[in-house]
Amino acid sequence: MFAQTKSKKYVPAKGASLDQISNGVLKDVLPNEINQFNAIRELFTEARLKPGYIEIRSVDGLRSPERYAATAFWTGLLYDVDNRKLALSLLGSLSHDEREELTQRAMKTALNAKSGKLSLKQIAGTLVAASQQGLKARGLGEEHFLEPLFENIEANISPAERVLHKYATEWRGELGPLIEYSGV
After folding, report:
1. CA–CA distance, 167 with 35 (Å, rounded to integer)
2. Per-residue pLDDT of the chain (184 residues; tens, 9 = 90+)
3. Which helix (H) or strand (E) segment is 47 a member of?
4. Whole-angstrom Cα distance, residue 181 to residue 184?
5. What residue segments make up the domains of the chain, in order of their start?
6. What is the CA radius of gyration of the chain?
7. At what angle do helices 175-182 and 159-168 cross, to 10 degrees?
C-alpha cells in the first residue's frame, strides 16, 4: 500500500511488488528492510504477528459479545502451554491443503464442516472447553466471556447462521432489527 523513499517519505506503492520496486518501478524507493517490513505488515491474513502480540482478524465483523468471546478463547488457548499442545495435537497434522479445505468447508457449513475424521464441531467443543480451563487457571474471571461460543456449539450454529435465521424469521426481512442487533 505504501513504500518509503530514500528520504524516508511515505508514498503510495500503487500495487507494486517488492520485485517491481527492485526493478525501479517506484522512483526513489528501494527494496530495503523498511519496505520489506512494510510489505509483510500489509498482508491481511487471519492471524498476523505484530510486535508484542498476535492479531486475530476473524473477529472483525462480530458483535461485542462474540468479539469478547473470541478474545477470551484465544487468551485461554494460547496463554496455556498444555492448551497449545492440545491444539497442535488436534490440528497440527493437517497439511496446508487440508487446512485450506477445512476452512473452505467451514465457510459453507460452519460447525458441520469435516476434514477426514475431524469434525469442526468436535474440535471447537474441545478447544473452547480447554480455553475455559486455561482462563480459570489464570484466576481473573474471564471464562464467562466464552458463553456465546458454548451457546453456538450447543445450538450447532455460527454467528452468521444465527443472524440469517433471525433476519428470515423474527425480523421478517427488516433491516432495522438487524442494525440494532449488530450494534452499528
Report:
1. 45
2. 788 888 889 988 888 888 888 888 888 888 888 888 878 777 777 777 778 887 777 777 788 899 999 999 999 999 999 999 999 999 999 999 998 999 899 989 999 999 888 899 999 999 999 999 999 999 999 999 999 999 999 999 988 899 999 999 999 999 999 889 887 6
3. strand 47-50
4. 8
5. 2-43, 61-182
6. 21
7. 150
Nearest to 25 by CA among 14, 40, 33: 14
Residues in the chain: 184
Provide the Cα torsion 82, 86, 89, 95; round to 10°: -110
Cβ 30 vs Cβ 6: under 8 Å: yes
- Coil, strand or helix at 53: strand
d(CA 56, CA 91): 18
Q: Are strands 47-50 and 2-4 parallel, antiparallel or unpaired?
A: unpaired
CA dihedral 177, 107, 54, 70 (to 10 degrees): 40
Residue 164 one-letter amino acid: L
CA-to-CA distance for 171 and 76, rounded, in angstroms? 35
Q: 173: Cβ–Cβ under 8 A, 6 or more apart, which residues? A: 167
* Residue at 54: amino acid letter: I
Q: Give bridge partners of residue 114 from the DSSP assignment.
A: 119
